Amino acid sequence: MAHVDFNRNLLFFLLKSPTPWHAVAQMTRMLDDAGFQPLDERDVWQLESGRGYYVVRNGSSLVAFRTGKENPVERGIRMVGAHSDSPCLKVKPNPELRRKGYFQVGVEVYGGVLLNPWFDRDLSLAGRVTAIDDNGDVQDLLIDFRKAIGFIPSLAIHLDREANNSRTVNAQTDLPPVLMQVPEGDDTSFNELLLQQIHKEHPDAGIARVLGYELSFYDAQPPAFVGLNEEFLASARLDNLLSCFVGLRALIDNDGAEPALFVCNDHEEVGSLSAEGAQGPFLSSVLDRWCGLENRARAITRSMMISADNAHGIHPNYMDRHDENHGPIINQGPVIKVNHNQRYATNSRSAALYRYLSDELGLPHQTFVVRSDMGCGSTIGPITAGVLGVTTLDIGVPQWGMHSIRELAGTRDSFILYQVMKAFMQQASVN
């Protein structure tokens, strides 16, 4: 598979994944097409050697694995982890705002959003709705308006002459998107608008009333190749759906001989402490049911986790924000992320295996260390390492505009990471 075809498939995945629920739905379709079998956590599992399985929790987190042809206790498990969520604006439970004939909705900031780029963008809305049908049964449904329905207008510079010097964003008052104009006395509820959309997308579901929702605004502009030579790809949610796609494809496309696993957790952007987050019990529960409790502990000592989450590529306009010896360049390879204060879980052993595999394939790699006078972000890597006790590597492709409404990465890096991850999942010994 050439990197151009790989990236076209990546852009399609990003287009169809405006929320974690949609991303997991896309991943389950990919797994179904590859012959993986779905598992239900409520059932007894009967796992067979040499097969592929997956399990979904909350509709927004997923664990998929190949049992391999060898005993995972003796061979260890080759694990890759990523996260399905991205910083965004989420609709509040009672969101209706009516001002001067404009219908707006209140939003809550989810995660560490870079807020200024959200102004003056065409916004759409998607997510999960919980509703009751005509038979009195509760259903969860995914909706996606798939068109621009909202807008957050900037205040004109004529009304704020200091806008280019000192404008700040108040998340409560400045961010409610405008959805439409309404006449005087209008009492349209947001739930009524959702019900109309449900009937449009799910006409046979028989939905009578909306009970709740988890909805996110997103950039309606589709993902695209950019640059004179199309060496970049631009999209919302590259952090971290790019890593989800790369990790899942590596699992699907490897030869299946060795025990291998891919986990995609929700809620990384807000700390990972949830039933389906990396700090929760989801992955441990799956491993216990696969290996058995005591055998899981034995398997972990022979296993390794690659935590894949995008890295900060050096910005040509802000080069001083990087350590001078650790400024990753876009399209010059994935970035091994190192922090001795354990914001990243990389150690010399896990980094060495990645470098070995990458070098054997003739592929480039880079290293990132944050400036010593700046704080460092984190990933699911240290959390998963702490929960499982597994040797872990933190890595990611370099990108610009992290946590913006539209981010940018290189077209070569994602395919390079895929090739090394695929080799990792086929490696006879990982620890």
Automatic annotation (TrEMBL):
Gene Ontology CC, one term: cytoplasm
Keyword match Cell cycle: no
A Gene Ontology molecular function term of the record: metallopeptidase activity
Cofactor: Zn(2+)
One Pfam family named in its UniProt record: Peptidase_M18
Entry coiled-coil feature ranges: none
EC id: 3.4.11.-
Gene3D superfamilies from the UniProt entry: Aminopeptidase i, Domain 2 (2.30.250.10), Zn peptidases (3.40.630.10)
Enzyme class: hydrolase
Taxonomy, superkingdom: Bacteria
Transmembrane region(s): none
NCBIfam families: PRK02813.1
Protein name, as recorded: M18 family aminopeptidase
Organism: Marinobacter mobilis
